[in-house]
Amino acid sequence: MGAAILTLGVLVGGLGITSPAYAAGADYPSWDDVQQARQNEQTAAAEVTRVEGLIQGLNVDVANAQAAANIAADEYQQADTIATQAEINSNRLAEQVKEATTAAEESAGQVAVLMSKMGRSTGNSVSLELLGDPENADDALYKLGAMTKLTERSTEVLDRAKQAANLVTTLNDQATVASDILTQARADAESALNRATTASAAAQNAVAEQEANQSRLIEQLATLKGTRVEEETQYAVGVAVRAEEARKRAEEEAARKRAEEEARRQAEANKPKPGTGGGGGGVVLPPPPPQTGGGTGTYWAGSESGWWRPAPGGITSPYGPRPVMCPKGCSAPFHAGLDFGGGTGTPIKAVSSGTVTFAGNAGAFGNRVIVDHGGGVQSYYGHLSAFNVRVGARVNGGDVIAFMGSTGVATGPHLDLKIYVGGSHTDPAAFLRARGVRI
């Protein structure tokens, strides 16, 4: 199948990225995520191809099984015709046996009658009658002729009776054979048909099962294709956003260095000249933006103990009691954090190194990031417009972790910084000043 993979340059160009997409979020997939998405799609495509080949083979099996079933059905029909004819023959033979049995019984009766008559009139008695009564010789000769005829008749009847008995025996044997043929023919036909029907049903069931499997795999492949395209697109967006962030950080660092250099130059210029007894005019420019309080930690550089100011703007709402800004209950009379002013998209920095334990929406607090610094200390960053970290990420002090916004309950873009120690909130300004940060 092999879906075409867009290059990073084409993706970035196609997306028309010309400025930082801070609002889109910064939880972008890595290159490993993109590779895994591609691998998942290729694996699924290979499985779909394999199942398609399997279904083609099974369709051939179904066609063969159906052909065998048709042949078996024809054989069953022929066997049933043979069985039906055998049944007709068996019935006819049974009728013939019945008729032959009746004829044999009649012939046996005739034989019995003739034998009885022959027993009453024998050839010896007729001969004595002829010698003893010559005057009645004609009558005696008639009787002698009748005796001869009777003997011939009895022989004929006896032969017919034997033939009838033999026919009965023969027909009975034929009927038995016909019955056996009938039973075997039907059994063979039914067995062949059952085997063919079972094979055809099994083949059809196999195809139905694989077709269902194919449908499921095709759906999964479509999902994986969508995931892969989304991963590649988001990866490209992430690369562009991170590049823009790096550019802005470089610009900010360059501006900071220029400001420091200008401040140093001005300080040198304002030093009293030897022999002049005084200093000249001029103003020493502090590093932008203006900061208040002592300490070396700023938005541009960390303190000696590694703590940073999270945003460059001024303080708009300090820690402690404050007027209720929302009478409907969406704000509290005590502010447990420290608000920094600024514009939407201003990079927010981690106040110190630690591990990200939360990066998501927190209702009224808007988009929020929580960093665990260890030792029971946690920093909370609220009302963000977008994230630059994900849960589990390890960050250093000064790393950009998010961007300023006005999500949740907020009157405008700002950063709500909260510091928790041992599970209880504390004044972020006092906490950071104690660690050398200018607030």
From TrEMBL:
It holds the Pfam family Peptidase_M23. Keywords: Signal. Residues 252-298 are annotated as: Disordered. Residues 334-428 form the M23ase beta-sheet core domain. InterPro entries: Cell_wall_metabolism_enzyme (IPR050570), Dup_hybrid_motif (IPR011055), M23ase_b-sheet_dom (IPR016047). CDD domains: M23_peptidase. One of its GO terms (molecular function) is metalloendopeptidase activity. Residues 252-271 have a biased composition (Basic and acidic residues). It comes from the Bacteria. Residues 1-23 form the signal peptide. PANTHER family: L-ALA--D-GLU ENDOPEPTIDASE (PTHR21666:SF289), PEPTIDASE-RELATED (PTHR21666). This is M23 family metallopeptidase.
